[in-house]
Structure formats: structure tokens, C-alpha cells
Write a structure and sequence with these properties.
The structure holds two protein chains of two kinds.
Chain A (H helix, E strand, L loop, with lengths): L2 E4 L3 E3 L19 E3 L2 H17 L3 E7 L4 H9 L4 E6 L7 H19 L4 E5 L10 H9 L3 E5 L1 E5 L2 E7 L3 E8 L2 E5 L11 H9 L2 E3 L9 E7 L9 E5 L4 H10 L5
Parallel strand pairs in A: 1-4, 1-6, 4-5, 5-12, 6-11, 7-11
Antiparallel strand pairs in A: 2-3, 8-9, 9-10
Chain B lengths: L1 E5 L2 E2 L2 E2 L2 H16 L2 E7 L7 H6 L4 E6 L8 H15 L3 E6 L1 H14 L3 E8 L9 E7 L4 E7 L4 E6 L13 E6 L11 E6 L11 E5 L10 H9 L3 E4 L1 H5 L20 E5 L5 H7 L5 E5 L5 H5 L2 E4 L2 H16 L1
Parallel strand pairs in B: 1-4, 1-6, 4-5, 5-11, 6-10, 7-10, 13-14, 13-15, 15-16, 16-17
Antiparallel strand pairs in B: 2-3, 7-8, 8-9
Classes of the chains: A alpha/beta, B alpha/beta.
The complex binds flavin-adenine dinucleotide (FAD) (2 copies).
Chain lengths: 255, 325
């Protein structure tokens, strides 16, 4: 069972997201970087599946040279191989990103054989385009379901569970297939000592790729109107309980 | 020439998000001087034509195929793509939901067109001839982006809850499209379904008592459970809590968890990181309980109590019981 997981490097903002003066990017001067929680879970799910069925996990990212950090983090929790598709300019639009990723996957598969599963996050943490995985899967000609809250292999089929307003839906995708994963499918592990060592040693493969510019153009980022609140402090410590219950009565939530 | 609204439904039951989409699509069509049309997938949705007409659709395209009895992202995407090809709308608007994003992304991939998800605004001077300027939500709504969709057919989804449904009845005509679906799109249909048990959910609860890292352990949630029980509400949590395995992810509030809108959100030992806040900000009232009076959640909340949640939460329950006698 060989699995490829696609992850995207994004900033990890805290209490607020600041934008650069030109409005073109998130100001990352004081920020660390991470991947989407959905993608962390995709990596964990892949690692659990190969622990059960054998094989290995490869992680792939399209991004700046620094995105090696996110690939190494994935290796520290169990991925075996890492592939960086370097880009030098600012971000690529979703169509171009998908085209470039699909062509790299095709090259990797021609060299090493097919991945039984290609996993994505349900949506990226920053841009939230909900589309790169779906575009890549179609180019690779494999079935794809997004939003997976459960993923098992039963023989030559990927059994996907997802939540809808109506209940839990089950999908059965013949392998090789592609799946977009949602946070909550599992609880990602922390790196072990051995994992950390492996992540330092792993060779990150660099594979150039191109794609033609698509039709979605980012013009400018802007902050949503901020909720300013004159916080009313009801008190300090347990003595405030009475004021809290007064408030609950006033709001009609406690009768 | 039209604006095409993609109606989301579940086995023939319309998703409420579709009504906002119909309204937004009608407004856009009016400003462009063109008509609103709608598309439904599967003959089990044919009856929804009257709903579309209620919201001003002049033509309802009904995609038919024997296989279209339940949801399947690839088959739905292919069916809508074929209707789009046949009718050449200038703009196609889908719902900003899991299924809505997925169907529009499938259409986009199949027609090799750009797609802009979770739009909150459309350019009021758009007349159909120029690229479509939109504002769209990023980071789950913590940040907005002005973007341009440059293509002959503009594919977008409307961020949920941004446009209220307003009726504008017309008489709609129906056109059936018998779509061709080959075996490649047949694999991703829903194969089985376990219906949800009815009851209060995190998304719909009138009161949510939430705990963060400050709660300290799975066991220490017991007083929060008790308070939620007394108020007829449910317990929520932050990602720090799910990451520690203290609670299930179904309880998580935020960007990658659930969006809530209770009458009151009681946030205990939660700092109020932006990714948590976007899930809670639609709450009508927020009460923060935190040892740190500078915590982000305290400065954003309407009400706060400063101090140790382990003492304050039980004291509130105690006071409620006392008053109830
Ligand atoms: C000129 C320009 C400037 C831009 N500037 C910014 C910016 O400053 N900040 C910003 O956030 N976006 C920016 N974008 C948009 C950004 O490039 C998109 O985020 C990107 O194309 C991927 O789309 P998405 O993030 O919406 O992915 P989604 O469709 O939401 O991603 C779904 C899944 O696909 C996979 N995936 C997505 N992208 C990658 C990747 N690069 N490598 C590996 N796997 C991936 C992941 O598994 C992810 O979970 C810019 C775009 C342009 C054209
Ligand atoms: C892409 C992305 C998506 C994310 N999605 C989500 C999401 O959906 N939901 C989410 O919650 N997070 C999400 N996060 C994580 C988020 O950034 C924060 O890390 C997380 O919300 C912090 O949880 P917390 O407030 O419980 O913990 P902390 O930030 O550690 O805050 C703990 C708080 O408890 C207070 N405290 C401590 N002890 C006590 C006590 N005894 N009594 C009272 N107060 C006390 C402290 O003063 C502090 O304010 C996401 C992050 C990323 C990058």
C-alpha cells in the first residue's frame, strides 16, 4: 500500500491575522508555519494505513524552499519520502497548482508505480479553495471524495465515511483512488525521537514542474470588520456567580 | 445568457442554503439584465422546480439519469457540467456547503474553468462582459480576499448565511436534460447511510459551554457538562482540547470544527485564537471565563469573569440550583 499525501505550507497566526502594507500577503514576520489540521490528519491516516497494510507514505508539497520544514515534520511522524515542487514567485492559483501537482505525480508513478491512494486536505488552511485535490484526481483519472471522516481499506476498495446533515454516508472507491480528509478522522501523533532523527536525514527530492496560469486572480487581501466590544466584567472569582446567573436570567437562557 | 443557480438537495429535500443562492443569483441576474435559471440533479428533485420559481427562476434545468438517486460528487459534477455546456450561463452559483463546494469544484475541473469558493460579495457594476470581481472568505472567514474570476463562465459558491432568502415568484418552465454518465463517475455514490439521531447538536444548541486548554484534563470537563445540562445546552471545546484527546473532535468549535450561533457562548479557559473565534463569533452573547484579563477572548466578549474556571463554573451551577430551589 503506497500512499501520497499533499500538504501546503501556511502561516500559523495567533490572535489576529495581519496583512502586509501592499495587501498582497499575510504578514509573516513574527509567525511560524504549519499545514492545515486537515492535512495533518491526512498524513496520520496514511501512516496508520501503512502500519496496518504495509507500504510507505510519501509527502508532497508545492511551495517555497522553506516548505521543506513541513515535509520534514511529516517524516517525523512516519512518512518515508518527501517531494518538494519548488516555486519562486508568490503563490500559484488553484488550476496551476493542480496541473503542476498532477504532472509531478504522473512522473513519480511512471518511475515507481502507482500510489494506491492520493490524499489531500478537505481545504487548505489559508486560501480555502476546496478544489486542488478534486482537480488533481480528475487529471489522474481516479475517483475522489472530499470531506472524509473515516477511511479504511477493504481489499481493493477504499471505504470512506463522511458526515452530512442527514447522517453518516459511506462511499466505496476502487483503488487507486483519491480522498480529501477532514480533521477529526484521527488524532495525529506527536513525533518520536526516532522520527525526529529520520526527519533530519531524509533526502527531500526536488522536482520542477510548471502549469499554465488559471483564471482566478487574487487582487488584494482585506481584514473583515472587527467586532469591538466593551467587555463588561461581571466580577472576579466564584463570587461573580450571582452576577452571571442574573445575566443568564436577563438573556432568557435560564428560566 | 443567464445566471445559473445550482440547487443543493438531499434525496429531493432542498438544502436551505439553496434559497440564499437563488436570491443572490436573482439579484446578480437583475443587475446584468439577464434571467435567473436553476439546475436540479436527479428526477427526485423535479418537484423543487416550484421552489425555484418561487425565488424567480424562469427556467429550471432538470438533469436526469437513472443513476442519480442519491448524492455522488463526481456524477453530480458531471451532470451540472453538461447542463452548463448546453446552456452557457455567464455565472454559475453553488451553495457554500461541503456538497456545494465539492460539486462546483467538480464542474470546474471537468470544464477546466476557475472557481471562487465562499464568496461574500459580487461586484455591483458587473454586467456580464468583464471579469467578475468578488470578495471571498479565507481562513474560514478570518480574512477576506478581493479576487477576480476571469473566464467565459464564472463558477462561484456563495458563503453560507451571507444572503437572506427573499422570494420573488415567477412561473418557471422546466427543461429535462438526459445526461450521459460513464462508468468513471459511478464509483463515488453514497453506498450506505446511517441516519442521524434527532437531538440538540453543537451547531443548533441555544447554549454552548466550551472548555479550552485551561480546563486541564478530560475529567475536569464534568462541571462544564453539569452547567450545560442545567441550561439545556451542550459542551464544546477548542482544538487544544481535541489535540490532547480530552474530547472528541465533534465538540470542536472553530475554523476546522463547527460554527455555532447560540444565544450564549460560555468560553472557559479558552484564549480566543482567531481560528477558534471564527467558529464562535456568530454567538449572540459571549461570556468568557479566564484567569487572564488580557486574553483575546476576554477583550472580544461582551461579558467576562476573571478567575479560575475550576472554582467559577461549579459556583454558577450552585447558584442556578439555589435559585431553582
Ligand atoms: C498572484 C497570486 C497570489 C496569491 N497569494 C496568496 C497569498 O498570499 N496567500 C494565500 O494563501 N494564497 C495566495 N494565493 C492563492 C493560492 O496560491 C492558492 O492557495 C493555491 O493555488 C492552492 O489553492 P487552495 O489553497 O485554495 O487549495 P485547496 O483547493 O483548498 O486545497 C485542497 C488540498 O489540496 C492540497 N494542496 C493545495 N495546495 C497545495 C500545494 N501548494 N502543495 C501541495 N498540496 C496542496 C492540500 O492537500 C489541500 O488541503 C495567491 C494566488 C495568486 C495567483
Ligand atoms: C489552520 C488552523 C485551524 C485551526 N482550527 C481551530 C479550530 O477549529 N478550533 C480551535 O479551537 N482552534 C483551532 N486552531 C488552533 C488555534 O490556533 C489555537 O491553538 C487553539 O484554539 C488554542 O486553544 P485554547 O484557547 O484552548 O488554548 P490556549 O491558547 O493555550 O489558551 C488557554 C487559555 O486558558 C486560560 N486558562 C488557563 N488556566 C485557566 C483556569 N484555571 N481558569 C480560567 N482560565 C484559564 C489561559 O489564560 C488561556 O487564555 C487552528 C489552528 C490552525 C493553524
Amino acid at each position: 500500500m503506497n500512499i501520497l499525501v499533499c500538504v501546503k505550507r501556511v502561516p500559523a497566526p495567533g490572535a489576529r491575522i495581519n496583512i502586509t502594507d501592499d495587501g498582497q500577503a499575510v504578514d509573516t514576520a513574527f509567525l511560524g508555519f504549519t499545514v492545515s489540521p486537515h492535512e495533518e490528519c491526512a498524513v496520520e491516516q496514511a501512516v496508520q494505513l501503512v502500519e496496518k497494510h504495509g507500504g510507505e507514505v510519501t509527502v508532497l508539497t508545492l511551495g517555497p524552499a522553506e516548505a521543506e520544514e513541513q515535509l520534514r515534520t511529516a517524516v517525523s511522524v512516519g512518512a518515508a519520502k518527501a517531494v518538494l515542487v519548488p516555486i519562486t514567485e508568490s503563490d500559484w492559483d488553484p488550476q496551476r497548482t493542480a496541473q503542476a501537482i498532477a504532472s509531478v505525480i504522473t512522473d513519480l508513478e511512471n518511475a515507481n508505480g502507482k500510489y494506491d491512494l492520493v490524499l489531500f486536505g478537505n481545504e487548505s488552511a489559508d486560501s480555502c479553495g476546496y478544489q486542488v485535490g478534486i482537480r488533481v484526481a480528475l487529471k489522474l483519472g481516479r475517483p475522489m471524495v472530499n470531506g472524509a471522516k473515516g477511511l479504511d481499506i477493504e481489499g481493493s476498495v477504499a471505504k470512506v465515511r463522511r458526515e452530512s446533515d442527514a447522517g453518516q454516508e459511506i462511499y466505496m472507491l476502487p483503488l487507486p483512488s483519491a480522498v480529501g480528509v477532514k480533521e477529526g478522522i484521527n488524532l495525529p501523533r506527536y513525533p518520536t525521537m526516532k522520527g525526529r532523527l529520520a526527519s533530519k536525514k531524509v533526502d527531500v527530492t526536488r522536482t520542477e514542474s510548471t502549469g499554465s496560469v488559471g483564471g482566478l486572480k487574487m487582487i488584494q487581501l482585506q481584514r473583515p470588520p472587527e467586532r469591538v466590544s466593551n467587555t463588561q466584567i461581571l466580577g472576579t472569582g466564584p463570587e461573580a456567580a450571582s452576577a452571571v446567573v442574573d445575566l443568564l436570567e436577563e438573556l432568557g437562557v435560564f428560566k | 445568457m443567464s445566471v445559473l443557480a445550482v440547487i443543493e438537495h438531499d434525496r429531493g429535500t432542498i438544502a436551505t442554503a439553496s434559497l440564499g443562492v437563488l436570491t443572490a443569483a436573482r439579484n446578480l441576474a437583475a443587475q446584468m439584465g439577464t434571467s435567473l435559471e436553476a439546475v436540479t440533479v436527479g428526477s427526485n428533485a423535479d418537484a423543487l422546480a416550484s421552489v425555484a420559481g418561487q425565488y424567480g427562476a424562469t427556467v429550471v434545468h432538470q438533469a436526469h439519469h437513472d443513476a442519480l438517486t442519491d448524492f455522488g460528487p463526481e456524477a453530480w459534477g458531471e451532470a451540472v457540467a453538461q447542463v452548463v455546456r448546453a446552456t452557457s450561463p455567464q455565472v454559475v452559483i453553488g451553495t457554500g456547503t461541503e456538497r456545494g463546494h465539492e460539486v462546483i469544484a467538480q464542474v470546474a475541473a471537468r470544464l477546466d474553468l476557475p472557481a471562487s469558493m465562499n464568496c461574500t460579495e459580487f461586484d455591483s457594476s458587473f454586467n456580464g462582459t468583464q471579469p467578475l470581481r468578488v470578495v471571498r472568505a479565507r481562513w474560514g472567514g478570518s480574512l477576506l480576499e478581493q479576487a477576480e474570476v476571469d473566464a467565459t463562465i464564472k463558477l462561484v459558491t456563495l458563503a453560507n448565511h451571507t444572503v437572506d432568502a427573499v422570494e420573488a415568484p415567477t412561473s418557471a418552465s422546466n427543461t429535462v436534460h438526459n445526461v450521459n454518465l460513464d462508468s468513471s463517475v459511478m464509483h463515488s455514490f453514497v453506498q450506505d447511510r446511517v441516519e442521524r439521531v434527532a437531538g440538540v447538536t453543537l451547531a443548533t444548541a441555544p447554549v454552548v459551554v466550551s472548555g479550552g486548554r485551561g480546563v486541564g484534563s478530560a475529567e475536569a470537563f464534568a462541571p462544564l457538562e453539569e452547567l450545560a445540562g442545567l441550561l439545556g445546552g451542550v459542551v464544546g471545546c477548542s482544538r487544544a482540547v481535541t489535540n490532547n484527546g480530552w474530547r472528541n473532535h465533534t465538540d470542536q468549535v472553530g475554523q476546522t470544527g463547527t460554527r455555532i450561533a447560540p444565544d450564549i457562548y460560555i468560553a472557559c479557559g479558552i484564549s480566543g485564537a482567531i481560528q477558534h473565534w471564527v467558529g464562535a463569533m456568530a454567538s449572540k452573547n459571549i461570556l468568557a471565563i479566564n484567569t487572564d484579563k488580557e486574553a483575546n477572548i476576554v477583550t472580544k466578549a461582551g461579558y467576562a469573569v476573571i478567575g479560575d474556571l475550576h472554582k467559577i463554573v461549579p459556583a454558577i451551577s450552585e447558584e442556578i440550583r439555589r435559585r431553582r430551589g
